[in-house]
Every structure is written in C-alpha cells, then in structure tokens.
Amino acid sequence: VEGYGNVEVNSVDGRRLTTSHLRYDQARDEISSDSAFVFIDGENRQSGIGFVTDPNLIRFRVLRQSRAQGTVNVPPQ
Question: How many CB atoms lie within 10 A of CB 23?
C-alpha cells in the first residue's frame, strides 16, 4: 500500500509522522519512505529524508539527513 500527498500516521499514544510519500509492506509489517519526513513524539521533533519504522512508530530508523530537537531515546537492542 502506498500513500501520496500529505500523509500522516498517528500512534495510539500520541506519536505523529508526516511525509509526502509512504509505503506499507504487509509482509515485513513496516512503514517506509525515501522522502522528507517530520516525526513528533511529545516535545521531541525529528526530521530527515527517508525512514523505516514499525506501524506503531516505536522502532524508527532514519536513512539520511536527520535533525532532532529535544531528547531522542534510543531503544535497547
């Protein structure tokens, strides 16, 4: 499934992702894009180009040019 235009994904606990292009891969259960994005988690804001994440926006990997404002929590591996 792909979305174009002003695509917005919201998690049940308040995280928000906006981008102009988004792909959902059901087999991998992941959302991805190679376009510019903004990811907001409470007071924290991150932007960049390209990402891969799970549908709940918990495991978020930036592909290029990331900028963050606030505290970025890195989940344990």
Answer: 14
